[in-house]
Request: fold
Amino acid sequence: MRRSKYLLNTLKETPKEAVVISHQLMLRTCMIKQLASGIYTYMPFAVRSIRKIERIIRQELDRVGCIELLMPSVQPADLWNESGRWKNYGKELLRMKDRKENEFCYGPTHEEVVTDVVRRELRSYKELPLNLYQIQTKFRDEVRPRFGLMRGREFIMKDAYSFDVDEETCDASYWLMYEAYKRIFSRCGLNFRPVEADSGLIGGDYTHEFHVLANSGEDEILSCNQCDYAANVERCEVRQPAAFSGPELDKPRRVATPDAKTIEEVSNLLGVQPSQCVKALLYKTENEPVLAFIRGDRTLNETALRNALGVPELELLNEGDAREVGLVPGFVGPINAPDGLSLWVDPEVLAIEASVVGANAPDAHFTHVHPSHFANYQVTSLRQAFAGDPCPRCDEGVLASWRGIEVGQVFKLKTKYSESMNASYLDEQGHSKPMVMGCYGIGVTRTMAAAIEQNHDDAGIIWPVQIAPFHVTLLSLDVGSDEVDGAAETVYQALTDRGVEVLYDDTKGRPGFKFKDADLLGIPIQLVFGKRSLNQGLVDLKMRGTGEKRSVALAECVDETIAALRQQGWEHH
Amino acid sequence: MRRSKYLLNTLKETPKEAVVISHQLMLRTCMIKQLASGIYTYMPFAVRSIRKIERIIRQELDRVGCIELLMPSVQPADLWNESGRWKNYGKELLRMKDRKENEFCYGPTHEEVVTDVVRRELRSYKELPLNLYQIQTKFRDEVRPRFGLMRGREFIMKDAYSFDVDEETCDASYWLMYEAYKRIFSRCGLNFRPVEADSGLIGGDYTHEFHVLANSGEDEILSCNQCDYAANVERCEVRQPAAFSGPELDKPRRVATPDAKTIEEVSNLLGVQPSQCVKALLYKTENEPVLAFIRGDRTLNETALRNALGVPELELLNEGDAREVGLVPGFVGPINAPDGLSLWVDPEVLAIEASVVGANAPDAHFTHVHPSHFANYQVTSLRQAFAGDPCPRCDEGVLASWRGIEVGQVFKLKTKYSESMNASYLDEQGHSKPMVMGCYGIGVTRTMAAAIEQNHDDAGIIWPVQIAPFHVTLLSLDVGSDEVDGAAETVYQALTDRGVEVLYDDTKGRPGFKFKDADLLGIPIQLVFGKRSLNQGLVDLKMRGTGEKRSVALAECVDETIAALRQQGWEHH
Reply:
């Protein structure tokens, strides 16, 4: 592609409206143009990358037997009423009426439609398993669209839905997709982790999110430096110590701790480590107050507590409510707690030989508390894992912390939709059973944004070659010189003939501007054609990623370029 | 693809709701499932064909420098107010409000959005010409969605928009696209014609529709059997004879023709040919009554008359109105016509040496009318062309008539949108000028439907190999036999390895059913594996299109199949 005939006007300045780096760089490189809040035109430079991501997705899903179809974006309300989501989905669902006043929505997801297709099409266990996917534009009317393509309203998504006879084969479908996703993100050239995630209450046994690692990621994930284990922090397991089983040394001693309410205040006052103190956290569910105890130096994992209680929501108990149930805020502990409270204790707390706990009385704590002094409690893992924790799975590993951007998720839906929408099959005995479903999403445009969040520097984007809009950019520093034009043209044609996608900057402009512009665009390899070098038969080759520059003989620059592309993982189709 | 793992349940019976053949066959071959009126899921067998059409379109548009982008489907009302179409588009525009009560529509076309992108992006004549395209789902809320994908509400379209500095370069852009369209439909394996079409009043100098020829087509088109000329019948030019220039033989003779009003009645009564009579047609525009005269054996082309008058609408004049302006219905002629009427005469009429015309008096006609007797008229081509007419362009050709399905259109928009939306550029002298636009559409899903309308027989679809969902289908007649399974499997792998897309029917079923099913699906080549043939080392190869069948040696069937595919125009990518 000749730059002079292309639509790619870069910006020197960062537009003020953009706060995250991918948004800034996409605006500066003419990848997106906002049409309305959260609604963007994907400009030519972006579309090239999107198509490559889509191609990789298609190839890998086809490989595992997932079958492409394309469902409508405009969906009738009837179906959404069947699943109950017409009411429950809320304002994120963009609703409309057609000329006959029938109600429709712009599909934000397709569980209803695909379940309808399958229930009308399939009858027998012999036709299962089946896994269907599509790549499609979706719309979610976000409250606060922001961060460019990271949280837009109209976006491109790959969604897939598997249908199985039972949980076991559903698991097989799930893990096939899990492996396909790993190959997809690898082939996109991204540094990513599949992480165990919380599936919430509706969820199945497990769900994995696929995170692209980037400092700007919204999510914290922890991963082992030795084995494959990785999890969203809220889901990350903790390797727990055994409870302290030595003899009780003494009875708890009650000590006065006037005004010492926080762990810091108590440990300072008593001259003990925070890790010896027990932190009490006061919550309430819809039905009851809950006390959670963790070690003083730890952070509570609210998701873990919620899951232990089996409730969808938890609220912190305010001081007034706490007093009402007989608690003394700042001095709450596991001994002499008021009746009727649910007490949950993290195993680490029970590993402390002599701990410090609130005395459930004003300005008082107990010290020398032995695990056996705790009464009427349940034990469950409650603390958040953190970087440096030992891996919960392998014996050698230590967890490291990353920021991640969720670009994909695999999820066991089980029979949520097949039951409400009556999608059933006949088993070998002729009994009707609900199909067991899984669903699998990849944010296509989000993946492109995440790739930029992960791969950039101060000068601009650094595209992974696999999803780069172009593989190589030719910079002509002396447009109009017969010698330079001729050489650049020859190399342009030769690379193109060998399947390399080239952006040929044939515009007039100062070298300094061209170099900056090329760095901003982030095409993996830059080939620079200037009179001075060409007089010596040389062309400058720069790797955008490493910044490495070298002069190569004009006659060899095509082969050198292709070798360098291959080294970066370029696959020629 | 193994049929046992594919989603492709064919129907023996034709569903009652389908009246056109493509709709019937798409339902029977599990290509589409209706979700709501005019809204369909494209099932896997259809998606494969759609992707191939899209691929051909992309390749050919990229080749002529057309650049792909992707604009939003959800478009703000503001832009449509600028162009005036928010009001004018009517109920076909699917409108909606987002959570903030802002008005949007689901884009049925993208002139507004693309003009907005370009006006914000471009400044100078140096950046022109520019031609942008996208392939996208669109929605038009048709009053009467029908005929399956032929007139759906949600459909896939390729739309492109060119921007030029002036009409001359716009013409160049137009013809580039015209040629690209020819290559696109050729590569889709379709028998088609680009035909001159009427651009209406907003139109530019010309517009072409691309029609797939099919008996079921809604449009009549005429095309030369010698040269490239083809036109929609309403736009088709007519080769006109010179006016009769011989001497006047006599004065018109007034003859009584009581109750003889039609051409048939008059010619019978007077014993002359209808071609010697002159037919008068009475119309009115908003402003005036109009008389049009054509030869008695011809049909008026209303579009030609409307264009000659420069009006968007014409209405037939009813008898009452005709009498009011002094006309005598049934006896209207060009001599002694009442004052204040606009008279238009087709050249053929003036080529008659002695014609018969109405006398503008009850029960009377003139005979022996010489062209010089006509008064106060204008000459313009008014009659419809028909099959058998000489070609208006070449000397040898004769027009043939076809039915066509419009699948694409190229159109000069000129400055309609660039003026109303202020999309201008600075010319070399620094003057601001509106860009000159063209627009270019291809109905992707409609093309697939038209392909079926054109290529089918009583047994089912006959796919052109270039857009066939699969190239070859393997039919195993003895599933479970080691010999047959082994041979079929080997050929399946060998063909797949060579880039041939194979549907392998590995299901158990009666041979008769399998043959019918394969004919219905219409995959170009059928390879039949049965015990009896295999014992002789043979496989049966059937060409779906011609029905030709032959036995080929198992060892050669891969090469033979590939040769047959190539002969049909298969291009391996």
